[in-house]
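W.,

You were right to be curious about this one. When I first looked at the sequence I had no strong expectations either way, so I just let the prediction run and decided to look at it fresh. Below is the sequence, 395 residues in total, followed by the output.
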Amino acid sequence: SEETIVFYYGDHGSGMPRSKRWPYNSGLNVPLILHIPEKYQDLASEDYQAGGESDRLVGFIDLPATLLSLVGMQPPSHMQGHAFLGKHEAAPVRYQYGFRGRMDERYDLVRSVRDQRYVYIRHYMPHRIYGQYIQYMFQTPTTRVWKQLYDEGKLEAPQTFFWEPKPVEELYDLEYDPDEVQNLAASPSHRTVLHRFREAHKNWVMETRDLGFLPEGEIHQRAGDRTPYEMGQSDQDYPLAQIFEMAQLAAQRDMETLPQLVEALGAEDSAVRYWGALRLLIRGKEAVISQAEALGKALKDESPYVRAVAAEALGTFTDDSMPQVLETLVASSNMVEDGVFPAMYHLNALQMLGDKAVPVAGDIAKLPNEGPKELGRFGGYVARLLEKLHADLNP
């Protein structure tokens, strides 16, 4: 007590909607209480006051740097966090950053930025609804009831939003809208704020060499014997500027940049091809039908992730190529033979096809739902996907 600096902070709760796993303020903001005894007051920040409050923005990413600073060590420059106490206290930061990637068995890609007043959310897979079926999340009775009420048509906006496709951008004024309901991204009076957050987001992606713009399995494939971090520092192995530019284009639903996307399907880098295919899927029926031939060729791409997206796009919006689409998806859904990450991508795509996947229900039932022990919990995620597919295709 008088000899100990105490950090007391909360977790982000269970995996409930808009709670843990969501990079909104509702999902990321947790309590942090500090006790600094009189003996160590010289290590406190200027705004520290016993029994008081501080509106300084800090995050869990700042804790390692802060602990080093408290023991008199200079945090190394490669640490992304900033010390908020101690001899090497850094200046307060303007922004805090959040992210969402794969959540157990389901894939998503969301980034967020917040300052003292606003939170900005950028969706890179806006075609995926907020409320994808995640087995863990649906163990919560509230989630199941909410989804049932939506399916029965008993809800109205904004209660319906969680079960519908996402906008590309969201912007909320936390001072006047702490529940993050009134999206200001299209508000003319907030255009300057929106552009400021866009730049902050882009700068952070480039500064941290954000690896999330690669399909998950490709991160490890490109890394080889290195750590993903080491691989990500190499522009040759990870041409982030090129990939990020395509990802930003891909998330938009307009048709103006369609020629760039068609060209992207023939790019040398597989991640660029992946985002080119994903853009067509996000654009919807018109884009997919207009580029059905190019997507058909992509079904034979050497990258399983490009194949998965191309197959989902064609399977969702066309009928002529369904036999080839289903064959492609089933062919890479075996976690033992094809790897756990390709299997998860392809099984997710099959899930999105709904009843169109019924012809291969028997083939899906034959897929292994247990993998080698070294897969750990990843094998369990594949098992969950197979369980849900079996339930949906065999009602």
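Here's what jumped out at me. The chain has a mean pLDDT of 94. And, maybe more interesting for your project: The longest strand covers residues 118-123.

Coffee later to discuss?

I.
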